[in-house]
Amino acid sequence: MIYEVEVKFHKDFVVVDGNKITIGLISRPEDGKANRELVKKLARHFDVSSSQVRIVSGTKSRKKVVSIEI
Domain boundaries in the chain? Predict the structure, then answer.
């Protein structure tokens, strides 16, 4: 599945609405920390391994496209 993801910082939540996900991240967007947290949270939410979650585009943006192999 391909999802459009919008990131909010300083919050901790995951909201899935169709193919759109809004997620709150605590990590700062430095050295890829926020992207790693994003992958781990989505993997936990969809009950898959982290290797099945891939950021397709937007690694340096608050709006991302993520692929999740279910």
Answer: 2-68
**List of residues 6+ apart from 12 with CB closer than 8 A:** 24, 25, 26
For residue 9, is it left (φ>0), alpha (ψ between -120 and 50) or beta? beta
Question: For the segment 24-67, what is each residue's pLDDT rounded down to a tens digit?
Answer: 999 999 999 999 999 999 999 999 999 999 999 999 999 999 99
Answering whether pTM is above 0.85, one says yes
DSSP one-letter code for 18: T
Q: Looking at the domain that runs over 2-68, which CATH code has it been given?
A: 3.30.1200.10
The residue type at 13: F
- Give the β-pairing of 20-25 and 2-9: parallel
